[in-house]
């Protein structure tokens, strides 16, 4: 196992497009790093560069204390699991797992022992003599992981390994990957576009967009304190509500004014007055997560600002019901207890927990407070 | 479709039968004529069966028919063609496989341009290269030899085989190559251990195509290999056009069939593997 550090790494293609514009990420030995972002953000390119499958235009990548910029993939002591699994079609499962060990000229007995150990761990022993074409998607996924595990590398690289699986299997495999990480304490870099995978698996998350790391931190940090509008909207499902609102004076501080077709309410802001004084009277984007707008019973606290809102649509999800209302002409999603939810067309009392609300500059989309 | 013999279906079958007949009739005439004696041919009808099945024409075609001033039958020229076709097919297919592997999996600066240039090679008419190629073969000392013909066919065939293999390998996920590189395999190990084992179908396609092209080629054969080294297609032409004495239709027909047999054989044997390869690959999990 080893730590990984990425210092000011850039990638420019021959035709002049910048794919990565100065990436800085560092994780410790044994951490689970997630690279997450929409397609085209450069996350897979970055992973390929860590693997050595793609050249670095400038900057440094270190695995442990070793600078690996100019090392070929086979000398970097890494293993990779691919989205398509990339199992060698003509080889049996056993050969797939042992191929990398054979190339490294390990003794036959050692290879057999490793293959058996890994197969047992992943419960694929009964599949060892099958060809990849005879396996289901989940089994192929396991074999691909087995191939990586057998090599016992310093760093595991996962390139969207679950996106070809159906929803149920994806959740199962997600737990297994997490379990494997907890057991082996391995260093993992994991690329995904799925923010739920990012939140559930990662120790550290790097949210990327347009070749730039928008925010790097622990899942909870990123969820609670998004650095900008993009991160706030990307992480969390349903995503954070962005309500254009004006900063106004409120009793004991500042607030934002929010109106429904029934009336208006001033939501007091928890932030420091000095930080926001320049924004008084100006429009900001008020960010609040769906679970922070709820019914009185779920809110569980007295003295929170509340307002009767006109329910437009409801979406029951089972554990709770999503309620859509319109505030400041913007569709807003709220999360309420199923029994408390009103019907579309009715008015419903909603309670706002503003303690975790955030404000963004509407022009630069950067977090203000 | 409960009623299998509806009028529409009958029409379709009738049309198919007609077309099949149209294609089979010449073969029938060739076969029957080749087993007739000359007398039989003169007396009988073109479509009638031989009065007595006689293999004399075949024996003569193989061993003693006259092509120009030589009278050794098709035998020697048949082997000339084998000696030309087999190496040319194998070499051009192997080169095509490696080329296709490189231009699809190991892109480098200018690899697309290189591939385009190779592609243009498929569209160069034979006639255009005749004179420069003759000059080149002269310089190399390969004029009028089977080796020279092999060289010409390898050069010409590489454009096609590269195209075949490239188009096949672009459908293979390049993650396979990446996985191989991470496992520590080099250029040739990846090619021989990972890609070649899945290339069966395209090999068969390539071999059928190249074999047919090279075996049936007449122009290169007639220009670059004269006399002793000429392939069977040229010999057949000489045999049919030799105009001394009586026109021996039965010998002509037998010779033509001898010249066509290897390609038929390749289609029958390899074609089956081709279909098998395709269906084996199509089973997805």
UniProtKB/TrEMBL annotation, chain A:
The keyword Transport applies. Residues 4-235 form the ABC transporter domain. SUPFAM superfamilies: MOP-like (SSF50331), P-loop containing nucleoside triphosphate hydrolases (SSF52540). Gene3D superfamilies: 2.40.50.100, Nucleic acid-binding proteins, P-loop containing nucleotide triphosphate hydrolases. PROSITE patterns: ABC_TRANSPORTER_1 (PS00211), ABC_TRANSPORTER_2 (PS50893). Signal peptide: none annotated. One of its GO terms (cellular component) is ATP-binding cassette (ABC) transporter complex, substrate-binding subunit-containing. InterPro entries: AAA+_ATPase, ABC_transporter-like_ATP-bd, ABC_transporter-like_CS, ABC_transpr_MalK-like, ABC_transpr_MalK/UgpC-like, Mo/tungstate-bd_C_term_dom, NA-bd_OB-fold, OB_MalK-like. PANTHER family: ABC TRANSPORTER ATP-BINDING PROTEIN (PTHR43875:SF14), MALTODEXTRIN IMPORT ATP-BINDING PROTEIN MSMX (PTHR43875). This is ABC transporter related protein. It comes from Pseudogulbenkiania ferrooxidans 2002. The lineage of its organism: Bacteria, Pseudomonadati, Pseudomonadota, Betaproteobacteria, Neisseriales.
TrEMBL record, chain B:
It is a multi-pass membrane protein. This is Binding-protein-dependent transport systems inner membrane component. It comes from Pseudogulbenkiania ferrooxidans 2002. SUPFAM superfamilies: MetI-like. Residues 78-270 form the ABC transmembrane type-1 domain. The keyword Cell membrane does not apply. GO terms for cellular component: plasma membrane. It is found in: Cell membrane. Coiled coil: none annotated. Keywords: Membrane, Transmembrane, Transmembrane helix, Transport. The chain crosses the membrane at residues 12-31, 84-102, 114-134, 146-169, 190-211, 253-275. Belongs to the binding-protein-dependent transport system permease family. GO terms for biological process: transmembrane transport. Its main location: membrane. PROSITE patterns: ABC_TM1. The keyword GTP-binding does not apply.
């Amino acid at each position: 196992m080893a730590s990984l550090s990425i210092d000011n790494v850039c990638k420019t293609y021959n035709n002049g497009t910048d794919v990565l514009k100065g990436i800085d990420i560092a994780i410790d030995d044994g951490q689970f790093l997630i690279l997450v972002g929409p397609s085209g953000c450069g996350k897979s390119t970055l992973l390929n560069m860590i693997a050595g499958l793609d050249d670095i235009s400038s900057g440094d990548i270190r695995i442990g204390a070793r600078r690996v910029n100019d090392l070929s993939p086979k000398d970097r002591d890494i293993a990779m699991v691919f989205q398509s699994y990339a199992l060698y079609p003509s080889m049996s499962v056993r050969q797939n797992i042992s191929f990398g060990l054979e190339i490294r000229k390990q003794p036959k007995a050692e290879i057999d022992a490793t293959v058996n150990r890994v197969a047992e761990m992943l419960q694929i022993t009964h599949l060892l003599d099958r060809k990849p074409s005879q396996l289901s998607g989940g089994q192929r996924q396991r074999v691909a992981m087995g191939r990586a595990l057998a090599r016992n590398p310093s760093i595991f690289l996962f390139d969207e390994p679950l996106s070809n699986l159906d929803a149920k299997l994806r959740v199962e495999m997600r737990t297994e990957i997490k379990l494997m990480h907890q057991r082996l304490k391995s260093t993992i870099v994991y690329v995904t576009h799925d923010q739920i995978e990012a939140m559930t698996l990662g120790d550290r998350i790097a949210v990327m967009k347009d070749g730039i790391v928008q925010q790097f931190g622990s899942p909870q940090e990123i969820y609670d304190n998004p650095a900008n509008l993009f991160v706030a909207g990307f992480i969390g499902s349903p995503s954070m509500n962005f309500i254009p609102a004006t900063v106004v004076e409120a009793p004991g501080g500042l607030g934002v004014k929010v109106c429904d077709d029934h009336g208006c309410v001033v939501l007091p802001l928890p932030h420091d007055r000095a930080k926001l004084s320049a924004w008084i009277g100006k429009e900001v984007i008020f960010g609040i997560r769906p679970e922070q707008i709820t019914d009185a019973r779920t809110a569980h606290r007295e003295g929170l600002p509340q307002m009767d809102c006109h329910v437009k649509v409801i979406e029951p999800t089972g554990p709770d019901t999503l309620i859509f209302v319109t505030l400041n002409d913007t569709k807003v999603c709220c999360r309420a207890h199923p029994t408390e939810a009103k019907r579309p067309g009715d008015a419903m009392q909603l309670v706002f927990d503003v303690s975790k609300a955030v404000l963004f500059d509407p022009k630069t989309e950067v977090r203000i407070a | 479709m409960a009623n299998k013999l509806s009028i529409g279906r009958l029409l379709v079958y009738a049309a198919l039968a007609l077309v099949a007949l149209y294609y089979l009739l010449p073969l029938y005439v060739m076969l029957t004529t080749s087993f007739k004696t000359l007398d039989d041919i003169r007396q009988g009808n073109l479509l009638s069966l031989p009065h007595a099945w006689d293999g004399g024409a075949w024996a003569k075609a193989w061993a003693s028919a006259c092509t120009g001033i030589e009278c050794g039958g098709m035998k020697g020229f048949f082997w000339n063609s084998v000696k030309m076709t087999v190496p040319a097919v194998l070499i051009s297919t192997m080169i095509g496989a490696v080329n296709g592997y490189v231009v699809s999996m190991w892109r480098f600066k200018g690899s697309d341009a290189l591939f385009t240039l190779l592609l243009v090679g498929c569209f160069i008419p034979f006639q255009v290269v005749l004179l420069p190629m003759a000059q080149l073969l002269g310089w190399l000392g390969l004029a009028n030899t089977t080796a020279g013909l092999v060289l010409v066919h390898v050069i010409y065939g590489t454009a096609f085989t590269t195209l075949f293999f490239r188009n096949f390998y672009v459908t293979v996920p390049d993650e396979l190559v990446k996985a191989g590189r991470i496992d520590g395999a080099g250029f040739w190990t990846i090619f021989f251990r990972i890609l070649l084992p899945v290339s069966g179908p395209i090999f068969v396609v390539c071999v059928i195509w190249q074999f047919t092209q090279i075996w049936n080629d007449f122009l290169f054969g007639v220009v670059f290999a004269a006399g002793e080294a000429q392939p069977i297609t040229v010999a057949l032409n000489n045999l049919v056009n030799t105009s001394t004495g009586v026109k021996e239709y039965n010998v002509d027909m037998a010779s033509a069939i001898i010249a066509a047999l290897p390609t038929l054989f390749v289609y029958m044997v390899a074609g089956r593997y081709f279909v098998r390869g395709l269906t084996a690959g199509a089973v997805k999990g």
